[in-house]
Amino acid sequence: MSVDLASPQLGAAGAPAWRRALTIAIRCVLVLLGLAIIVQAFIVVQARPQDLITGVHGMADIIRRAMPPAFAELPSTFWPAVQTVDIALFGTLVGIIIALPLALLAAANMTPSRFAYYAARAVIGFTRAVSDLVWALLFVTAVGLGPFPGGLALGVHSVGMLGRLFAETIEQMDMAPIHALELTGARRIQVFSHGIIPSILPSLLGITLYRLDENIRSSLVLGFVGAGGIGFQLLTAMNLFQYQEVSLLLILIFVIVLGAERISAALRERLS
Amino acid sequence: MLRVRGLSLRYPNGKLALSGFDLTVAAGEFVVVLGGNGSGKTTLLRCITRTVKPSAGEIWLGNTDLCALEGEKLRRARLALAMIWQHPSLVRRRCVLSNVASGALGRHFTLRTAFGGLPKSELEAARIHLAEVGLAELAEQRASTLSGGQAQRVAIARALAQQPQVLLADEPVASLDPEAADEIMRLLQRLASDERIAVVCVLHQVELAYAYADRVIGIRDGRMVFDLPPAQVSREAVHRLYLPEAA
Question: How many domains does one find in chain A?
Answer without folding.
Answer: 1
